[in-house]
Amino acid sequence: MFSHNGKISARQVMILLILQMLNMNMLIMPRIGANYLGRNSYIAPIIAILIGLIYLFCVTSLTTKFPKSTFVEITKELLPNWISYILIVAFAAKLVISVGLELRMFGELVNQVMLPRTPISIIMIVFILSAAYLVKSGIESTGRMSEILIYFIAVPLIIALLIMIFKTDYREVLPFFQVDPTDVGIGTVLVSFMFVPLEILLMLNGLMKHPNRVRKSGIRAIIVVGVLQAIITLLCITQNGLQETQTQMWPVIVLMKSLGMNDTIVENQEVLLLIMWVFSIYMYISTSLYIISLIGSRSYKFKRENVFILPAVPIILFIALFPNDLGVVYSYYVRFEYYYGIWFIIPIPLILVLIAKMRRGRG
Fold this sequence. Notes:
Blueprint: H1 10-21, H2 24-37, H3 43-63, H4 71-78, H5 81-113, H6 120-135, H7 139-167, H8 181-191, H9 201-204, H10 214-240, H11 242-247, H12 251-260, H13 269-299, H14 309-321, H15 326-340, H16 347-362
Helix pairs in contact: 1-7, 1-10, 1-13, 2-8, 2-10, 3-8, 3-10, 3-16, 4-5, 5-6, 5-13, 5-14, 5-15, 6-13, 6-14, 7-13, 10-12, 12-13
């Protein structure tokens, strides 16, 4: 932990990446995997770990060449100013849209499960303002909060998964490995989009005390999330059934409710587990909001990094409130991930690496 110096440790980066990837994607990925791989969809997250490592290598192959710089400084050094600003604005816009859709999906989930009588707009406004309050103090407070919340997220999740692992009927996944290889490839690629939050390393790498440890942090985060997603998908198939997993928008919520059907002294365990996801989404939105503000501050060379936090809030809320209903939001969310998810993970970092090598060769 590093106080009041704008730096974060490799451990904090690892935790932030885990929490970033434990977003709404985790709740819907079992459905996407089941639609392509059927009963064997639990193998998709394991194979997707390899794709996630490719994503990580593409991003870090750029950031390790500029260990003290963020994406803003890197593009300005390698590209003409007008091209640099286009990429910077595109990156910030992608994050803003992602946060807006994530916020709306989260608001719909909370409204359905926890607060059915509370207007969804109130839920989203309170949530994003509390996130803005956290990140206004900089990356230090965000990193420290992630170290605290990870325990509140991990402990109930591990306990719940252990209970279900030992009580589930695994005959539901039989027969093994009877799936078309083409479906395995497509399904694995789509599931690998849960690793898209690795793109924040384009900005966080320049804030690390030891940027040479970024790959180790990323590898650990990818493995943890991939294994966790595989276990959750397996339990969704065995507990909910294949058809239920393929048709439910929130198969993981149905899985949580199945835990509450047991004869226990605590009612509505799914609400307790959903609180875990509340913490995770809170850190996702907080970190993304900070990155958005950091992009603006570094672009205009402001000393304060929280200048653009409050101006970004109404834009995000507008995007969150724009879709009419949950079906439209879900469609926008999935399609946005499919078509714009990996632009700042693979093609743009690799193009910038190639330009950097060409310029150094000429130099």
